[in-house]
Design a protein that fits this description.
Length: 293
Amino acid sequence: MIRKSILSLLSACLWAAGPSFAAGPDFDGKLRDAVASPSLPAMAPTPTGAMLTLFTIDGMRQVRMPAPKLGVLSAQNVTAFTDPVTNLTYTFDDDVPADIQKQMRDDLAFIGGLKGNGASGLHKEIFGQVDGPTYARFFETRVTAIGMSECGGGNAVACVMPFFNSSKMWLTQNFIKFSHPQIARLMIVFHESRHTEDANGNWSHARCPKPFLGKDGQEIKSIWTGAALAGEPACDKTPLGSYGSSMIMLKNVQKFCASCTEKVRMDAGLYADDQFKRIIDAKARQEMLKDLY
C-alpha cells in the first residue's frame, strides 16, 4: 500500500542544497515516511531587485526578481517520496497539482524500470549503460525537490535556479498545459537535472543563431511550445550540456531500449532528432553524429 507523508518544514531557497531526510527502516518500495532535517543552511543577505539566472528547457534567461521572493524562509508543505530502486527521497511542494505529481512519479517509475541492451560512447560518458536504475540514480542524486514557478515567464517549461537552490527543479504552467509523450516529459526533467550541476557551471546554454533555420529552410522552433528560437540562449555548443545529454539519452532509448514499446522508441527518436538541431557547434555535431547515427 502506498503511504504518503505530508511534511511541514521551512523551505530555504537561497544557496540551499535542498532538504535532507532521515527515513525509517520500514521502506515499502513506493513511498516512505520521512522527516525534515532539523538544520537548515544559513541564509545570505539578498539585495533588493537582484538579477537571477534561470536555466530552462527553452533557454537561459536573467530576470529581476522582486525582493519578497528572495532571501526568505517560508513555511511550505511538501510531499516526500522515496524511490524503491535508489532509496533516495525527493519532494513535491504542495503547489504542484496532485495529478502532475502522480504523472511525474509514474514517468520516473517507467524510466527506472527500463531495460537496455547497449549504449553509445557518449551515453556511457554521461550516464553509463542504458539501464533504469542508472537513470533513476542520475536524476535523484541531482534533483531533491520539485515546485511550481513562472521561471521568468514567457515560454519557459521548467527551470533550475542555482541562485536559490541548485537541487530543486521548478515546473511552469507550460509543462502542464501542453500534451507530449511520456518520453518527452522525461526529456524535460533530465534536461533540467543536468542544470543542477554546480561543478559544471550548471551547463549554461549558447545563443541560437539568427536566423535559425533547418535544412528545409524553415525557422527552427521549440517542439514543446512552438516558440521561435532564433537569437535565444536556447542552444548548446557541447554534446555534454542539457540539450546534448537529454538528446543522447533519448537517442539511446530509441536504439537500445529492450523493454520499450515501438511507440516509445519512435517518440524517443523524434524528440532526440529535434533536440539535435539545438547543437550548433560543428565539431560537437560531428561527434554526436558519429556516436549516434
